[in-house]
């Protein structure tokens, strides 16, 4: 997974207006809020069946659980920072195919679910909007949060692409194979803002996904780099316009050209950092949380990145 350190290095070398903070692995008690002890034991001891390894898409190795726990911890930290300060990102994360008892499609642990369940223990009425623009449906998230009225799941994805067995979410936008960039942006613009307006969120978690790019191996979409920048600007602006604290996660990316996935991920973060800096200078503030004590209310907006990979 070279794309993770590559994107990190790109952001640092570009001098992006970000602060990068390393994290320690998420402890087992956090993971157990979502995942079954049986599945975590298999990950720890390398006792996944051949079929489970096949469906996960990654070979088991001793550091698999450690790496995934780091990635999950970074999403937890990013959520906390965004609630306090307005915006944050994980330089990995968005492993939306993972279920409580199994990993699927390169997703070992469900970082978003672990983070949201953790937030809910402290702030039971907190409302979270998951905006998933990865090319593949967020089936794990949809299944885990179905019936939880405090969480809204939005996913725009290829209707015929992986996973073949879709899980219904609050708003699923299934697009045709090889959808053009213009049609993608039209569908996004017609569905994401109304969904945001339909749900009084306290926090948006955006799984961006670089696999919508036209040269991605698995995305089956036709967005150019410019279309992707257009997508990023729209999602970021829609959240900032509504004064919604925003967490950005990577999601998938499998570009044919070496280094391009990292470049696209870094673009998304840079675009967010620039937009956030603009609202800082305009002295605007993100939404305030009604159930947080005054000392925990958002202060000066800041953008922080957490690095778990
Ligand atoms: Zn994907």
Can you describe what's shown?
With 309 residues, the chain is α/β, with parallel strands linked by helices. It has one domain: Arginase, Chain A (3-Layer(aba) Sandwich), CATH 3.40.800. It contains ten helices and ten strands. The chain has helices spanning 3-14, 28-31, 37-45, 50-56, 64-85, 111-122, 139-145, 181-198, 225-241, 260-281, and strands at residues 19-22, 86-90, 128-132, 151-158, 171-175, 179-180, 203-207, 221-222, 246-249, 302-307. The strands form two sheets. An eight-stranded parallel sheet has the order 1-10-2-9-7-3-4-5, with helices on both faces. It has a two-stranded parallel sheet with strand order 6-8. The longest helix is centred in the first third of the chain and has 22 residues, at 64-85. The termini are close together. Mean pLDDT is 91; it is low at 287-301. The chain binds zinc ion (ZN). The site of zinc ion has 7 residues, from loops.
Which short descriptors sum up this protein?
alpha/beta, Arginase, Chain A, 309 residues, eight-stranded parallel beta sheet, binds zinc ion, 10 helices
Mean pLDDT: 91
Main sheet makeup: 8 strands, parallel
Give the low-confidence spans.
287-301
CATH architecture: 3-Layer(aba) Sandwich
Within CATH, the superfamily carries the name: Histone deacetylase domain
Radius of gyration: 18 Å
Give the bound compounds: zinc ion
End-to-end distance: 9 Å
Order of helices and strands: HEHHHHEHEHEEEHEEHEHE
What is the strand content?
A: 5-15%
Q: How are strands sequenced across the largest beta sheet?
A: 1-10-2-9-7-3-4-5
Shape: globular
| CATH topology tier name | Arginase, Chain A
Assigned CATH class:
Alpha Beta
Q: How many extended strands?
A: 10
Kindly name the structural category. Answer: alpha/beta
């Amino acid at each position: 997974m070279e794309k993770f350190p590559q994107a990190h290095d790109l952001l640092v070398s570009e001098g992006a207006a970000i602060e990068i903070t390393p994290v320690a692995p998420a402890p087992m008690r956090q993971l157990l809020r979502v995942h079954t002890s049986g599945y975590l034991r298999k990950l720890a001891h390398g006792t996944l069946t051949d079929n489970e390894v096949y469906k996960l898409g990654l070979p088991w190795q001793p550091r698999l659980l450690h790496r995934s726990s780091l990635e999950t911890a970074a999403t937890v930290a990013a959520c906390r920072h965004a609630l306090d300060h307005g915006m944050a990102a994980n330089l990995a994360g968005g492993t939306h195919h993972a279920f409580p008892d199994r990993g699927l499609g390169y997703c070992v642990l469900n970082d978003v679910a672990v983070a949201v369940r953790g937030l809910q223990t402290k702030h039971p009425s907190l409302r979270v909007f998951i905006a998933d623009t990865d090319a593949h449906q967020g089936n794990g998230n949809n299944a885990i949060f179905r019936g939880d009225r405090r969480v809204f799941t939005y996913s725009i994805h290829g209707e015929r692409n992986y996973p073949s067995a879709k899980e219904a979410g609050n708003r699923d936008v299934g697009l045709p194979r090889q959808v053009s960039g213009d049609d993608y942006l039209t569908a996004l613009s017609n569905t994401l803002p109304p969904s945001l307006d339909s749900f009084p969120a306290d926090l948006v978690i955006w799984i961006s996904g670089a696999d919508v790019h036209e040269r991605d191996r698995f995305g089956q979409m036709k967005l150019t780099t410019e279309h992707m920048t257009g997508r990023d600007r729209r999602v970021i602006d829609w959240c900032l316009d509504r004064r919604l604290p925003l967490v950005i996660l990577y999601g998938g990316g499998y570009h044919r050209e070496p280094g391009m996935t990292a470049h696209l991920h870094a673009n998304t973060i840079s675009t967010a950092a620039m937009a956030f800096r603009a609202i800082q200078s305009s002295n605007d503030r993100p939404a305030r949380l009604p159930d947080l004590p005054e000392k925990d209310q958002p202060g000066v907006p800041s953008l922080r990145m957490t690095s778990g990979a």
